[in-house]
C-alpha cells in the first residue's frame, strides 16, 4: 500500500514538472516568435523610410532640373562626395540656426510682453501718485 502511494506522488511530481517544462517551452517559443515579428516589423519600417527618402530625392532632383536652378543641379552633380556632404552639413547647421531663431523670436515676444506689463504698472502707479498729490 505504502509503495503505491510513493509512486503515485512521484508520478504527480513528474507530471507537474512536465507541465512546467511544457509551459516554459511554449513561453520561449512565443517570445521567439515575438522577436522575429519585431525584427521583421523594424526591417519593414526601415525599408519604407529608405523608399520615401529615395522618392523625395528623385522629386527634388526633378524639381531642380525643371526650375531655374537647374544649372545648380548640374554643378552639384559635378561635385564630389565631400562637397555634397559639406552642403548637407551646412543644411543641418542652417536648420539649427532656424530653430534658434524661432526660440529667439519667442524669447523676444516674452520680453516685450514683460516690458509692456511693467510699463502698464508704472503708468498706473504714476496716476495714483498724481491723484494722491492732487487731493
TrEMBL record:
Positions with biased composition (Basic and acidic residues): 1-34, 43-65, 72-81, 89-122
Region (Disordered): 1-135
Biased composition (Basic residues): 123-135
Identification of the protein by name: R domain-containing protein
Source organism: Hirundo rustica rustica
Lineage: Eukaryota, Metazoa, Chordata, Craniata, Vertebrata
Amino acid at each position: 500500500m505504502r509503495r503505491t502511494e510513493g509512486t503515485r506522488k512521484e508520478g504527480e511530481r513528474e507530471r507537474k514538472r512536465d507541465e512546467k517544462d511544457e509551459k516554459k517551452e511554449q513561453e520561449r517559443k512565443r517570445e521567439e516568435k515575438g522577436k522575429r515579428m519585431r525584427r521583421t516589423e523594424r526591417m519593414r519600417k526601415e525599408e519604407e523610410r529608405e523608399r520615401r527618402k529615395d522618392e523625395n530625392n528623385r522629386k527634388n532632383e526633378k524639381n531642380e532640373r525643371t526650375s531655374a536652378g537647374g544649372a545648380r543641379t548640374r554643378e552639384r552633380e559635378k561635385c564630389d562626395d565631400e562637397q555634397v556632404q559639406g552642403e548637407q552639413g551646412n543644411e543641418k547647421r542652417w536648420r539649427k540656426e532656424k530653430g534658434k531663431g524661432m526660440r529667439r523670436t519667442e524669447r523676444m515676444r516674452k520680453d516685450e510682453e514683460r516690458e509692456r506689463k511693467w510699463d502698464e504698472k508704472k503708468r498706473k502707479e504714476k496716476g495714483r501718485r498724481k491723484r494722491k498729490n492732487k487731493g
